[in-house]
Specification:
Blueprint (H helix, E strand, L loop, with lengths): L1 E4 L4 H8 L4 E5 L6 H12 L5 E4 L7 H6 L9 E4 L2 E4 L1 H11 L10 H16 L2 H6 L15 H22 L10 H15 L6 H12 L1 H11 L15
Parallel strand pairs: 1-3, 2-3
Antiparallel strand pairs: 2-4, 4-5
Length: 238
């Protein structure tokens, strides 16, 4: 996978982005949970792509993203002349284009549940996002314990317990690693950052997710990022 960080040679970067094949435009690996989801899914299933990173929370961030999508957010997938924004739309496109990869569970009931929990993560858990923003480099135990966040944590645990019991067989949520695990991987990193205590079976699941090669690679690259916008202890709610 080729990685390009957006820099003053913008015309060259844009030209490369529209070459044949897939190009995934993402934000900082340390901070961008939405970017993590399709990136991990693509890497986990061996789908080749070129990566372009747009640094977030900078004066030129919006203008740089606008070169790829008028939606103003990352991630963005460029597929030939097509522009696909929104993490779930990107993942669905990849699943359609690479059906042999079986990115969703093959069992009908498992697939229906997987789509449901991914949709719930996509549209919900607002308090968890607000109180515990993704920050892979940080260790902030005890932060963000608002009532709403605690409720969201409880719901995530309920989802994981149900999926692991019904389909996971104490491995990933639906046995083999799937889109569902990629979609909840940023939550796993949040729980580590904020020191969320979990039942032993759920902690073991988190450790398996973090050990997956695609997730481990993202985390490793996030840990090596140097970015002054990284959140500090004093930036976060108590």
């Amino acid at each position: 996978m080729q990685t390009i960080e957006l820099d003053p040679t913008l015309s060259h970067t844009l030209a490369q982005a529209r070459q044949p094949g897939l190009t995934l435009v993402i934000g900082n690996k340390n901070l961008s949970s939405w970017s993590m989801r399709p990136w991990v899914a693509a890497v986990a299933f061996g789908i080749p792509f070129t990566e372009i990173k747009v640094l977030l929370d900078r004066p030129d961030t919006a203008s740089n993203i606008a070169h790829y999508s008028h939606a103003g957010r990352v991630p963005v997938l460029l597929a030939g002349e097509m522009t696909i924004w929104d993490s779930l739309a990107i993942i669905e496109y990849l699943a359609e284009q690479f059906p042999d990869k079986h990115m969703w569970p093959q069992d009908v009931a498992a697939r229906a549940l997987a789509r449901s929990i991914v949709a719930e993560m996509h549209s919900g858990f607002a308090e968890l996002r607000r109180a515990m923003p993704m920050n892979i480099q940080a260790r902030l135990p005890g932060h963000g314990r608002t009532p709403g966040c605690q409720a969201d944590i409880g719901r995530v645990c309920e989802i994981w317990e149900d999926c692991l019991a019904r389909f996971g067989h104490h491995h990933f949520l639906f046995g083999e690693f799937s889109i569902a695990d990629a979609y909840y991987a940023p939550v796993v990193t949040r729980f580590k950052t904020y020191g969320v205590a979990l039942a032993p079976a759920l902690q073991a699941y988190c450790e398996r997710v973090l050990a997956h090669p695609a997730v481990a690679r993202w985390v490793d690259e996030a840990m090596r990022e140097e970015d002054p916008t990284t959140l500090r202890d004093s930036d976060l709610p108590g």
